[in-house]
Amino acid sequence: MIFTSQKKFDDEVSKEASDLCDQLMMEIGSELHDDLIQKLSVFRLYMDRMERSAHDRVEIESLLINMRTDFEAVIDSIRRISRSFLPEPVEHESFNSTLESLCKSLEKPGLGKIHFQTEGKEQLIPENVRRNLYRIVQELIHNSFKHSSAWHIYVQSLWTEHSLVINVEDDGSGFNKVSEFIDALRKKTNTLRLRTQAIGAVVTYHHGSKGLLVSVEYTISS
Prior knowledge:
The chain has helices at 6-52, 57-83, 95-106, 127-147, 178-187, 191-199; strands spanning 113-119, 152-159, 163-170, 202-207, 212-219. It is of the alpha+beta class. It has a 5-stranded mixed beta sheet. α4 (127-147) packs antiparallel against α6. The chain is elongated, with a radius of gyration of 21 Å. It starts with 5 loop residues before the first helix and ends with a strand.
């Protein structure tokens, strides 16, 4: 995109930033409503049942067991949501280790498995690049679980002397609609586009062997 003046460039950046804020607010609201609030609402039902079963010790003990299990699920949801907004600890570990830890933390036991693989010798990349690439992979995994109903997500980092390519592929139910997804993603203004532009990386979308394959390529300066 070519801008004929600084004002037009600033206007476009402001518009994209505003759109991004709106998108983030919608995602936060959706995450809280669809996940956390629904889990918490179950406890109101538990309390109603406990009131009705106040004199039934066996029933009360059964309800307490279920409440403990559901409470752990609530804690996991809070941790997962808060992790999306807290700075990631990347300063004292390799980037590959950081990505692997991210994949493990975002897994959904019994619902979704994330596989991480790396090839090549890891190169030194700037901290701001690490941070943006981390957030890009985080968003791609989140999108795969949320929009593609994926059971498995495959994250791969490929290192060469002059580049880093990160591939994220899922086996979601949207396999037959991958072409439609690709067209929509290419036109969409989102955090992936802004983050890749910020670090000079390139994001491309492909029809992979299992489903949607997203590749992020960053050129390593010599």
